[in-house]
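Table S5 (text form). Sequence records supplied for joint modeling of the four-component complex.
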Amino acid sequence: MPIRSLADRVSDFLPVTAAERSALDRLGERERPVKRGTTVVRENEPTGDLFMLKSGMMIVYTLLDDGSRQILRLVFPGDLVGMAVLAYGKAAHSVMAVSDSVAAFIDRTLLAEVAYQHPRVAMALVALDQTERAALTDRLAAVGRTSARARIAATLLDIRNRLRRGDPSIHDSFSLGLTQEEIGDATGLTAVHVNRMLRQLEDQELITRMGGRVTIINEAELKRAANHVDRQEGVDLSWLPA
Amino acid sequence: MPIRSLADRVSDFLPVTAAERSALDRLGERERPVKRGTTVVRENEPTGDLFMLKSGMMIVYTLLDDGSRQILRLVFPGDLVGMAVLAYGKAAHSVMAVSDSVAAFIDRTLLAEVAYQHPRVAMALVALDQTERAALTDRLAAVGRTSARARIAATLLDIRNRLRRGDPSIHDSFSLGLTQEEIGDATGLTAVHVNRMLRQLEDQELITRMGGRVTIINEAELKRAANHVDRQEGVDLSWLPA
DNA sequence: CGAGTACTTGAAAGATCTCAAATTAGGTGG
DNA sequence: CCACCTAATTTGAGATCTTTCAAGTACTCG
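The corresponding structure-token record, covering 484 residues in total, follows.
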């Protein structure tokens, strides 16, 4: 269970002064443990909070009229959730913990005050949010224009990469953390078809599986299968005025 | 061809002072006409500019390895494009004008300076960006979890609503502004199937068509067909500290 | 008026879903 | 630690939706 502070996350791409760091640390003070299966945020419910995930894993999703669910985003430690409360007075989407987690809640008023006092930090948070948006557009392109097999391959690689961000010791083997139904809801497929695609990737010897664990045994080929446009994740804020 | 300034757009949901308005107006000074069919921004090309569309219509899209295209966003007057340059040094996606347009380009350094001096304006721009993100998640949910018919219905309603934002005289009848191929690239369908779905909606007397014009003749039923979760677009920044 | 682009339609192939049932894995109370 | 109970996974068969391929028609622009 990796744990990262907001300041750590921001300092990955922006040198932060002591004052900025302490302001960021103050934002992350309100920590709360969340049990697996708990709905943390319900779509359309009024709220003034956003939060950063400290440890565990969550999903952001929306429910359609007919009861079907679209998972919009997988949330890993260090990710910021609910920036939309800056624009709306209510939650734009639902959020559920898929493993035991810890979240650090942030009041939007407090966030705004920090942003007013530390504009560079504000820009850093905007940049962080932009990386989420990029992930969202990648997912849309995958769901709209790639085969089921490619979507599953891409999802496996995505999960592996994001787990690795929090735990560099992870290489080819990792625990999925999602049910096949959840993977389906993230990729626009049924659970049954997710299962078939996983089996196919296994039969083709791109991965092996044991329990909930996946091991990538042919990463080059899996990447090719994923139709993966390798987004150079390089956030660059060096241009920011002082 | 409706034309809106950034200041007008922002003042829809945030009272702006004279100083703030003049700062926003300064941002929008660098106008440039763009001919239909012109690629304004190419994915991955280095740039420090974003822009606001003043008039016309554009699409934001990404191309996959196999040449297929996913349209991520339709751009109407008043929309801000390319906020990702705040995080990356290059364009996250390609942008093409689908009708003769005028764009007001904004250097990110200038934008950052305005944001530093006018934090409330900065928050307003962030809020504007959040509304775009909400539209993106709606599109993802539609592509991932709804039928071809529903996606087409939703797209028709979306285009009508957004055209109306710039021209309140528009009611049920409007020009699509997109080819069926483009609608397909936006909804994750083939042009052929888009055509069939339009025909079906016409046969079912939810719409009529003439040339590139669509008229909605049964809006209630079209909304139902769209599986539409009516997002109350109410941006609310009243909570913002002074 | 001609050329190219966009639209339209049919028929067949292919991908994915639905339904159903069997198997396995994980979690809990005794 | 076992036995049980439920949730998750797995597999097959058939139905459905969407794509592909092909060809003809209608527009639009120069």
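Note: Residues 147-148, 189-190, 192-193, 196, 211 of chain B lie near DNA strand D (CB under 10 Å from a C1').
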